[in-house]
Amino acid sequence: MSGRPDAYTIVSHDAHDAKHYGAVHLPVYDSSLFTFRTVADMEREGNEPEGFVYSRGNNPTVRSLERALAELEGGEDARCFATGMGAISAAVLSSIRSGDHIVCVDQAYGPARRLIGEYLRRYDIEADFADGSDLAAIESALRPNTKLLYLESPTSLFFELQDLRACTAMARARGIRTVVDNTWASPVFQRPLELGADLVVHSLTKYASGHSDAMGGVVVGRAEAIRELSGSELVLLGSVMPPQTASLIHRGLRTLPLRMERHQAGAMAVAAYLESLPFVGRVRYPGLPSHPQHELARAQMSGFGGLLSFEAGRDREKLARFVDALTYFRIGFSWGGYESLASLQEGCAGMPRRKTHAVRLHVGLESPDVLIEDLAQAFRAAGFDERERDKDE
Question: What residues bear N6-(pyridoxal phosphate)lysine in this entry (predicted)?
């Protein structure tokens, strides 16, 4: 055996440690602090990068998860946070100083856009938002004081991609750090660090956990960048992941590759079904050959997630009736768990390029045939006519 282990191997063998009596799953170190026999022992442990003194800085259960996530992403180290926004905030704040400028893709996760475009203004940090699908638009937004390029590929609302190789090369040539939100694809299907990114962030609440029972986030990157972030944004802002949460997410991680294959298969079937309907105007899913960036998706990803959206006219009430009529798709805004979800996607304030009504679907682990039947009956209940073509197509 040679080369890098695959994701299945990593998640099956990352935490084996003889110090824990051969346990295949690391015990939960649900302790706020660690005690010592002598002052010298405590000082020695405190000076170790991996030392365990106080769980706000390091905890064995959390560090085990962090090492697994770093290996999955191909990074040198990782730090976990209490939420995805905790991780995003840490990655952004560790990359900038007062007077700096940020360029962010205009379809990034809403709270990330608010952090970058609104909250940071009070600290004399300016931002511009650019069309992430247009490399020239990103380049034209850069300034001499730009220090951070924030990307999300694919985006989780309209599923547009950025050319990560081109974007990161352009940023590196100008001394600009790149942060990529990789939540949609997961490290199973995409590794932005290998494409040139400096830091990768994830909402672990989504696919990594996979069971809708834990919240968390992670930042992955080179050891030096993670060490700097650990000593400031992690311990000073305090968005620390509890050990019990880390154990739940690590358990979910064991089946991540298997679940991602299932999500992909189900989403492909559902997307193809939706695309076959005359009253559906557009299906947004990078795995479809009809997606305008499908070739780019194939070039920088090895697979596709379970989240997609579609448009079917501009009658909001009709779309709401469709969502209300669904049985196996539950109404909810998050995604990444075992369950299928549906939500009505509004006109997206702050995204001038996207003023439309759409339905966003997360395809869970259920049988695709069952989900397609559910969609079909909901369309009928809402009054969609298979003989009618979408006028906005």
Answer: 206
Catalytic pick from 113, 177, 206, 254?
Answer: 206
- Establish whether 109 is a catalytic residue: yes
Q: Is the pTM of this model over 0.85?
A: yes
Low-confidence ranges of the chain (pLDDT < 50): 1, 349, 393
Q: Which of 56, 97, 314, 353 is catalytic?
A: 56
Q: Is 206 a catalytic residue?
A: yes
Which residues have a Cβ under 8 Å from the Cβ of 34 and sit 6 or more positions away? 45, 52, 53, 54
For domain 256-382, the CATH class is: alpha beta
Active site residue 134: no
Identified catalytic residue from 29, 109, 273, 285? 109
Find how far residue 374's CA is from the centre of its chain: 27
User: What are the sequence ranges of the domains in the chain?
Assistant: 7-253, 256-382
Active site residue 56: yes
CATH number of 7-253: 3.40.640.10
Beta-ladder partners of 200: 180, 220
Q: 43-94, pLDDT tens digit by residue? A: 888 888 788 877 788 898 999 999 999 999 999 999 999 999 999 999 999 9
